[in-house]
Amino acid sequence: MTKHATGYLHGFTTGEQDRLIRQARQLEPFIHDQLPFRRARELVEVGCGVGAQTSILLRYFPDLHVTGLDRSAENLRRAESYLATQAWAAGRYQLREGDAATMPFDSASFDAAFVCWILEHVGEPLRVLSETRRVLRPGAPIVCTEVMNASFFVDPYSPHTLDFWRAFNDHQLEIGGDPFVGAKLGNLLQAVGFRDIQTTVKTFHLDNRQPGERAEMLAYWTELLLSAAPGLEAAGKIGERTVRGMADELVQVGRDPNAVFFYSFVQARARAW
């Protein structure tokens, strides 16, 4: 029996769907840098969500067709409406509702795979990656991008923010996800038979040398954290005092002339055999 995570920490509201599109644009230069899909023609995007990454993939690779798979009917409806507004996407994608652990595709159907911010939310990442390998042709590249939440740091010291972050990660573990899965990508890909595995740690270290980028990242990160507050409060993991304290601290960090923001995530590349 497939083990599912029991919830998505940020919810499925229209506001969250909008945030995911903004997030994809914010992080585009770091995630889509020199992806190995130039020769690919049929790519499966595992956990395509609202189509935010799909749009970027189609823009970067004009000969590519993307098949997006997602369990959320709400997200797929938003993906369809969003991609319909992107002229370069017309006729170049298909969206399917389904479980990434039991994909509704024949073996060796695709010549590339893209997995982004998904494994942190699934109960059985090994099964998802094994299924992804099954539907790939021999030699096909896969790119996985995932969180490593132990790396988060801001200065000045912000205790409410750290309390919120601990609750965020603890709750994600409790509902079946893994906020530290990025560090495990090498082991996971090797365990299911991928080869030529390479991992890259990508770090945002923003201080007085990049004040504009630092301000943008702090604003983006504040939005991300606050999007999880209703779910954490409903689960009894935090109270209003922590949320209010975190919001105040992040405003103060943003105003501090010597503020520091630090966060790392991991991108893995490999090939199916």
In words, what does this structure look like?
There is one protein chain. The protein has 273 residues and is α/β, with parallel strands linked by helices. The chain has a single domain (14-271), classed as Vaccinia Virus protein VP39 (Rossmann fold). Helix content is 41%, strand content 20%. It contains eight helices and eight strands. Strands 1, 2, 3, 4, 5, 6, 7 and 8 form an eight-stranded mixed beta sheet that branches. The longest helix is centred in the last third of the chain and has 24 residues, at 211-234. The model has no long low-confidence stretch (mean pLDDT 95).
Task: Give the topology, please.
Layout: H1 14-31, E1 42-46, H2 52-60, E2 65-70, H3 73-83, E3 93-97, E4 112-116, H4 125-135, E5 141-147, E6 153-155, H5 159-174, H6 185-191, E7 195-206, H7 211-234, H8 240-255, E8 260-271
Parallel strand pairs: 1-2, 1-4, 2-3, 4-5
Antiparallel strand pairs: 5-8, 6-8, 7-8
Helix pairs in contact: 1-7, 5-8, 7-8
Provide a compact summary of the structure.
The protein has 273 residues and is α/β, with parallel strands linked by helices.
List keywords for this structure.
273 residues; alpha/beta; Rossmann fold; 8-stranded mixed beta sheet; 8 strands; 41% helix; globular
